[in-house]
Specification:
Protein name: DHRS-12_like_SDR_c-like domain-containing protein
Low-confidence stretches: none
Pfam families: adh_short
Shape: globular
Number of strands: 8
Helix content: 40-55%
Largest sheet: 8 strands, mixed
Structural class: alpha/beta
InterPro entries: NAD(P)-bd_dom_sf, SDR_fam, SDR_member_12
Order of helices and strands: HHEHEHEHEHEHEHHHHEEH
Strand content: 5-15%
Number of helices: 12
Mean pLDDT: 96
Distance between the termini: 41 Å
Oligomer: single chain
């Protein structure tokens, strides 16, 4: 990654991704955008037991939505569910246990969900993983790729028929501003060549999520797709995966609720659905997916190649 790209990103972050930046930019938010009831609408949120995912689940539950929390750890999920039900007074909150790094299980979960539930209005792909060292899952796939990219692809693709049958369907993926330092690369999806740098691998996955969103939006025009950057947020995941960054920036990090604001806006507001599908958002606004002069643009051929590789991998592990 170029020094220029890194420096430009950090300067952008200091002015746009912090808590103060949120407090400043939120003054232009239209309050009535979120003054809606979503009773009768069903929302699936991955990684919903802490951080941005839990804050999103809480906000949607308070607006009357049916919430499907998809989490890896049952104890943490049940504890989060109890908090959400108690604070929101909404009992339509359901826990589903799934580790998105277990590729075959993602397929099995999605197929089972479609059999059991008749509607899903909004899918929020929030769960993510940053690995400190390279590790593989039972299928031999690098675990953070399996979670951040292939798991998101399989879950989304498998649930598309159910979303298409539901009213005003939307898919929102929580990416990261870190993707701005990465150009799409499809030649090392398993990160098995060169030194493994978990933070940069994660940033590449977040670039792949942006490309995936753009491509799925073109292919499925009756679903509203969006991808977003929550800003720099104080979450357990950030504290664990990037302790130095967390320690040095702690006083400037956003709360999980501030980080979740644009996710909730994209999920429930009428204003969001009026925007074209397939865009990248920051603080309720469509923003560029590239830093100026950073040479991170990819060709349509490369983007198509990513989708073909994901489709082939997904099919390989699809239960028959």
């Amino acid at each position: 990654m170029s020094l220029y790209r890194n420096s430009a990103w950090f300067l952008k972050g200091l002015t746009e991704f912090t808590r103060n930046a949120f407090l400043s930019t939120s003054k232009r938010f239209v309050e009535k955008d979120l003054e809606v009831s979503v009773a009768g609408r069903a929302f699936m949120i991955t990684g919903a037991n802490s951080g941005i995912g839990k804050a999103t689940a809480m906000a949607i539950a308070k607006k009357g939505g049916t919430v499907h929390m998809v989490c890896r750890n049952r104890d943490k999920a049940e504890e989060a569910r109890a908090d959400i039900v108690k604070e929101s007074g909404n009992k339509e909150v359901f826990v589903h246990i799934l580790d998105l790094s277990e590729t075959k299980k993602v397929w099995e979960f999605a197929e089972g969900f479609k059999r059991k539930f008749k509607a899903l209005n909004v899918l929020i792909n929030n769960a993510g993983a940053i690995m400190s060292q390279r590790d593989v899952n039972a299928e031999g796939l690098e675990k953070s790729f399996a979670t951040n990219v292939l798991g998101v692809y399989i879950l989304t693709k498998s649930l598309i028929p159910l979303l298409e049958k539901s009213a005003d369907p939307r898919v929102i993926t929580v990416s990261s501003g870190g993707m701005l330092v990465q150009k799409l690369r499809t030649g090392n999806l398993q990160s098995d060549r060169g030194r493994f740098d978990g933070t940069m691998v994660y940033a590449q996955h977040k670039r792949q999520q942006v490309v995936m969103t753009e491509q799925l939006a073109k292919a499925h025009t009756n679903i509203h797709f969006s991808v977003m950057h929550p800003g720099w947020v104080d979450t357990p995941a950030v504290a664990n995966a990037m302790p130095d960054f967390h320690r040095s920036m702690k006083d400037s990090l956003r709360t999980p609720e501030q980080g979740a604001d644009t996710v909730v806006w994209l999920a429930v507001s009428e204003a969001a659905a009026k925007n074209p599908s397939g865009h990248f958002y920051q603080d309720r606004k469509i923003v560029s997916t590239h830093l100026p002069l950073a040479w991170t643009h990819s060709s349509p051929l490369e983007e198509q190649k990513l989708m073909s590789l994901l489709e082939d991998l997904a099919k390989t592990f699809q239960p028959h």
